[in-house]
Amino acid sequence: MEIDANLIKGLTIAFGAIGPAIGVGLIGASAVRSVGRNPEAQGKVLSTAFIMAGLVDAVLAFVLVIVFTTS
Amino acid sequence: MRLFNFAAEGGVPLAAEPIINLGGFGFTNAMFYGLIMAAVVLTLFTFAARRSTVKPHNKLAFAIESLVEMVIQLGEDNFGSRKKALKHLPLLLTLFTFILFSNLSGLIPGVGSISITNDGHVSPLLRPFTTDLNATLGMAILTIGTVQFWALRELGLRRHLKHYFSVVEPWWNPMNAFIGLIEVMGEFIRIITLSMRLFGVIYAGEVLLHVIADLGGNFGPIATFPVYLMEIFFSGIQAYLFMMLTMVYMANATHSDDHDEHDEGVTTDPVKVTG
User: Does some domain include residue A1?
Assistant: First the structure.
């Protein structure tokens, strides 16, 4: 059976996006909840949340790099 | 099957291509654009410093002042004192502005369309500095090197090593040797993650723009618009992240465990972020 390489690439993006998506969702949910609980700390909470979102996003970036650079 | 043609032929190659050969040393397009961006940042800041007044008259100078003040404020939160924040301000501000400008420089329309021929090989003349792994690796090594330098300078060799090799009490516990080795390896992993994160996000963004433009066909300009907005957001986030991680590493490395320096106002514990 012949498997198309492009199918594998699409699946790589699909599966690789699951983890970061869950991570960003969790970060956003916790950030919004803590801002709602403690509105004075909004600046600090949001800056930490952005840092964490950036750390998580890097995983998706690795996936994209791997997919786009292999032929 | 044009729809599934992911990596387009005219896409972005992984390595930066040399545009001039200077005696066996390839001067790449990424280096060229990096130099241009460094000149732009220097000019902008020199201009803002000249026009800076007590009562703000110039909007650009005021905007740059606000940026500097923001970085100082962040440093104060992380280092615990304004003196220390001002001491490390040059490195942090340079990293932030240079990375931000390099990231955004790839999004200027027409940057990738100017090409140059070198040894019969056609390559774009301009390529954003941060889409080259060598560049980000260089910046990460510089950053971690500076952190180590200041840690040695401020704490001395013995107390600096204590950060790594004296985690568990008492100090002669054999577990410390293993934990210490892992901690030392963690410093090298920091270099890798810092460089790979910045390179990965910006390079993937460039390639994504190419791919979306290719998939969009005649509607390419409309299709790439949301990706453009996303890229602007990621450029800012990654520049901020690089600066912030540098700051956190610096604060953790130069933070002494002895509590004898409470004369600099309220000290707050540095934010712990690993990665």
Answer: no
